[in-house]
Amino acid sequence: xxxxGTALLFVALxxxxxxxxxxxxxxxxxxxxxxRAAALGxxxxxxxxxxxxxxxxxxxxxxxxxxxxxxxxxxxxxxYRKEFDVDIFTIPFKIRSARAGVPAQLNSNFNAxxxxxxxxxxxxxxxxxxxxxxTHRVVRSRGFGYGIFLGLGSSPINEFVTxxxxxLEYEGVVLDAGLAAIYDARIFNVGLAVGFDHLIDSxxxxxxYQQRPWVGVLFGLNLN
Length: 224
Fold this sequence. Notes:
The chain has 224 residues and is mainly beta. The chain has one domain (2-26, 79-222). 8% of the residues lie in helices and 55% in strands. The protein has 1 helix and 11 strands. It has one helix at 2-18, and strands at residues 30-34, 46-51, 55-59, 66-70, 78-96, 105-107, 111-131, 134-157, 170-184, 189-199, 213-222. A 6-stranded antiparallel β-barrel has the order 5-7-8-9-10-11. A hairpin with a 6-residue loop joins strand 3 (55-59) and strand 4.
């Protein structure tokens, strides 16, 4: 489907552009997993990290073993953590496949959904040059997630999508549900959703899209 390919390209371009957003100058203190922990002489990948700007304090839980890492070694580390994710999304458009003589549709009706899922975030501390002898410290982060969503929306109802069973034209209320994959840009989220709609009024028995799958692009804010 050309519409699906366009949606995927749109999401990819947004995700790429999000990588240029300037990140914070410090890493939030908390539990992280650290790549190459063994090379630092630490027995565990799971560490409590405290960012003191000039040094990173890496603490092994339970043992209290601590390693102070100087700023010169920051860029050699990647931190990551997995979290439960709660978001509210809007689905600006849905792509529906051709059905019952009606061509493929691009619907842009109101939709809002609650998303629950898992997310993994990656953090990399970088030194960006400002002047030949001056650098600016930035924490670059990327997040990816997957989960389920449930929401409320609307869809146009008329004779063409009800097999001629109604002469009315109105916006029907639908319940949305499905699966989503997201890219977490820290400021907002963007992703792809695959779901189905359930029309709640009496025309649901004639609606050609009743509980039929669709593909959509979603946007949202991170409530965590």
